[in-house]
Amino acid sequence: MAKKFDVVIIGAGAAGLMCAAEAGKRGRSVLVVDHGKKPGRKILISGGGRCNFTNYDVAANNFVCRNPHFVKSALSQYTQWDFIAMIAKHNIAFEERLHGQLFCEDSAKDIVAMLLAECDLPTVEQRYRCDVHDIEKTENGFCLKLNTDAIECESLVIATGGLSMPKLGATPFGYQVAEQFGLKMVPTTAGLVPFTLHKEEKEAFESLSGIAIPVVVESEDGSNFKENLLFTHRGLSGPVILQISSYWTPGQKVMIDLLPDLDLAETLTAMREKHPNQSLKNSLSRLLPKRFIEVLIERKDITDKPLKQYNPKGITELATYFHQWSVAPNGTEGYRTAEVTLGGVDTDELSSKTMEAKKVPGLYFAGEVMDVSGWLGGYNFQWAWSSGYVVGQNA
Question: Are 244 and 280 in the same domain?
């Protein structure tokens, strides 16, 4: 005999737990299942173990989605202030970092403990190390096989996340369910991920590993971010590269302003007047890491000679080079190190007000499994909270 629940939620991550708590508060009988050993695994390792759980400043333009309006309803139904109020209710100490990013002062474990406390309701059951084998649509909802048990539910919620960080158990399960029920998909790719470089550039720049430079990076579609760029053994990383990676497609270049806070032509002209015999290398090493300048000279990208040997045209060309340093990445590090998955269940298939599949009554999606990805800075968690809340109110 199949056991019956009002709601079955597959995935015990940020969105799934939020959804379970909200559905449970409505008196719905809820079963949360996950194939992992414990809940909230991605929460626990996020933000260096401190969890960047939201941001003071959240708007629709902080998200990448084929339909830029899709996120607006959920974000307005459950805002960052609502989540901050929950944090306050549970007495979790937090701190603000750059750009309004909010982190736990102590540990990401506090967030998981809070969500589990919110789910601690008589109507909410959780099962771990649990595999879902079959899902069938029935007259009254769905029938699932969990390990060896048959389960029936009115509403089925897919909160299984994306493909990023496979070590934490990421699988394409959610996409397979969507496809089983005939929902369109947006092709998936790694987002918020470091770039790798072509062999020649990689070999030239790998000696700079660990060096960071504040820059502005722009993609070919005009998206741009100002933050630190970090050289790595494999290529380029740092917050600014992770951000722009969500707007980059293979084959494209990115434009990097290496000196966004000054006019290099003006600065070099003033230096030339004051110290005409000073070498270009020494002049630029006052503005950028010396080793970086040396690599550019070794590569013959720039020529080291006294400033007095540079005429106004030469100085303009140098300024253009540094303000518009062009890099064509070889690719990205992929899902292994990606913080999110771009693409997923096409949002045109879902109601933006409830997250229910338009063609399949009772089937809901929450979190990263759909084609919504946030910027770095707490936005992906806010999407998990907002979408999870909305589904919890409707499933």
Answer: yes
User: 333, 356, 380: which is the final residue of a domain?
Assistant: 333
pLDDT of 169 reads 85
Phi/psi for 266 (5° steps) reads: -65, -45
Q: Measured between alpha carbons, how far is 263 from 268 in angstroms, rounded to an integer?
A: 9
Based on the domain organization, do 347 and 229 belong to the same domain? Answer: no
Q: For residue 333, how far is the Cα from the chain centroid?
A: 14
**Cα 329 from Cα 245, distance rounded (Å):** 10
The region that residue 28 occupies, defined by phi over 0 for left and psi between -120 and 50 for alpha, beta otherwise, is beta
pLDDT tens-digit map of 21-59? 999 999 999 999 999 999 999 999 999 999 999 999 999
Q: Would the pTM count as exceeding 0.70?
A: yes
User: Is 242 found in the same domain as 174?
Assistant: no
Structural domain count, the chain: 2
pLDDT band at 1 (very low <50, low <70, confident <90, very high): confident
- Both 186 and 201 in one domain: the answer is no
Q: How many CA atoms lie within 13 A of 313 on its CB side?
A: 0
